[in-house]
Structure formats: structure tokens, C-alpha cells
Design brief:
Elements: H1 4-28, E1 45-57, E2 64-81, E3 104-111, H2 114-124, E4 129-134, H3 141-154, E5 161-165, H4 175-184, H5 186-196, E6 203-209, H6 211-225, H7 229-233, E7 235-241, H8 247-257, E8 264-268, H9 273-281, E9 303-306, H10 320-323, H11 325-341, E10 348-350
Parallel strand pairs: 1-5, 4-5, 4-6, 6-7, 7-8, 8-9, 9-10
Antiparallel strand pairs: 1-2, 2-3
Helix pairs in contact: 2-5, 4-6, 5-6, 6-8
Keywords: Hydrolase, Signal
GO molecular function, one term: hydrolase activity
InterPro entries: AB_hydrolase_fold, DUF900_hydrolase, UCP033909
Length: 355
Amino acid sequence: MFDMGRVSAIKRARLQAVLVFCLLSVVACTPRYAAKHGQPHPSATIQSIYVATTRSLDDTGPAFGAARAKKLNYFRADISVPPTHEVGQIEWAKNAPDARTDFLLTDTLRFGNAGAMARSVQRATPGNETMVFVPGYNNTLSEAMYRLAQIRTDFDQGNPAVLFSWPSAGDPRGYVYDRDSVLFARDDLEHVLQSLTAAPGEKVFLLAHSVGSHLTMEVLRQAALRGDRRLLNRIGGVVLMSPDIDPDLFRRQAEAIGKLPQPFLIFTSQQDRALGLSALLSGRKPRLGVVDSPEAVEGLGVRVVDFSEVSDGKGLNHIVPVTSPAAVQLLKGLISQSERQGRWMNDFIVLHKQP
């Protein structure tokens, strides 16, 4: 006798697989743009982005692709943000680059090792806390560099900024490859953090997105298991945006780390369609980035900021805190308030869009 319940479950699983494949195929057809070189406009804002990457140089030219490198590569990229820039946007040069209207790559400088890059970071920018951005799934190096330049511009961020660009496939069909690449890059991210905090008093602030949040948590976990409280004490705060992590796994990671760096913030949205797709790929388990109550992270020393009422207007809502002008305004107000009061207000905050 056939188990009809099992047959139905198999059919549902196959249907879900077909739907996921179709969705990924549609997304894969969306045009992708690369950074283009050019001269800045006199009114442009220049953002110096330091990059540590485990991507290999592309065979077709002097650019970093999706392949995994045997060793880290380091460089500085100067990004020109146009005077016409709108909050939350990356103005890509779709044809001939125009510094008046487009993001441009104006200059680059290679470094031989992490120490050389760290010394340049500390000389170039005042302050002793460096923001380290760990991007998410389906990301290219160009997209990550421009995104960090956009974030620095929109949030008036003056501290030095380092992009840790792990080798994402840069293809929506490369989800499994990206999950493996996250594990591949753990030791390298830890090495970069060690280098940036080697000098007395130096700290880092970690900003991670999507699958990059999983990478960040794994690095904190392995530092804790190694007994490296020095590094953990040099982390001045952590923000996980739309974290693509199983909530049960996150709890295990957090418990292994022990006392989490503070502040430790998780930005969530129940409207995040990309995490809905991730849940399908991972067996329909909701991801950490869509939690809707404080119970999911209770007792971990974590604060949740819910962006569900705010949209980026593009459909996926996967990086709303930095792509929605309304979210940027709300978040800047929340940051300003927390700085004035010296603490974050509540463990669970729902941001309401202004009428």
C-alpha cells in the first residue's frame, strides 16, 4: 500500500522546488552592473572604502570575481557619490559614466597584508572605531563597495569603513555555494578583525546583512571557543540586518559566545520576501530576520528593531534599513536618541512609518 500522505508531501516538495527554481531564474535575469572608473565631479562626495576580500582575481582582467582565493587580498577603493544622490539609492552608470549622476570608482590602492591596510585605516581617518561591513547572499564586489559608500553617505558616517567581501557567487541560483563560502571565509574575517584591533584602543563595529550575519556569528563563536575575549571586548557593537540564520542556530551561537558585544541589534521585517524564499530553500523554517516577538531572542542580550511597516518600494524588502528613505530617517532618529540617552530604549522596537 502507498502512503498517500507521504506521496502528497513529496508532490508538495517537488512543487516548491519548481517554484523556487522559477523565482531564482527570473531574478537571475535581472541586469547587474559593475563599478566603472571615472573622474569625480567637484561637488561629489568621495568615500574611501577599505576592502579585504577572499575573492580571487578574475581571469578576464584586474577585477575580483566569485572564485575563492587562497589568501586574502587588500585594497582601498575611492568611490565618488554624485551630487544628485538620493537617499537609499545606488545610482549605477548604465552607459557612459557621468560623475554628476552616477557612482564612480575614482582610485584604488593595493596593500600587501592586513597590517598595512590597518595602518592606512588608522592614519587616514580620525577615531578609533572602524565599521566593518559583511554583505549578504547574491552579492558582487561592486555592489558591496557601492552599498557601503551609500550607507556612509546617507548616515553621515565619519568613522573608517572596511568591507569584508567574502566570495559570494553573485548569482541568485548560488545559494548553496554562498552558504559554503561563508564557512570558507570564517578564519579570514577573524584575521581581519584581529588586525584592525591590534593597536591599543582600536575597536570595530560590525554591520552584517543576510547570510553575512551567519558569517559574523560564526566568527564571534569561534573566537569565544578559542577563549579570545580580547577580540570580543574590542567589538563596539553588532548590527545584523535581515539575518538569514535559523533562530535555533542563532541561540546556540549566542550561548557559545557568552556575553555578546553591546549594543547588539537585529533588524527584522515580516515583509522580507527574500527570507521567505530562504525559508523554502531551508525547509520552511522561518529565519531570524522575520521574528515578530522578543521571545525568539529572550535572555540573549539582544535588541530587535522591526521594520515591517516600512518598504523599500522594490518588492523584496531585504535591506530596508538602508534602502528605504523613510527607514533611514527613522533609524537616524533612533540612533540620535540612543546617543543622547546613552542606551537603546527597549528590547523590541517597532518602527512606524511617518504619515
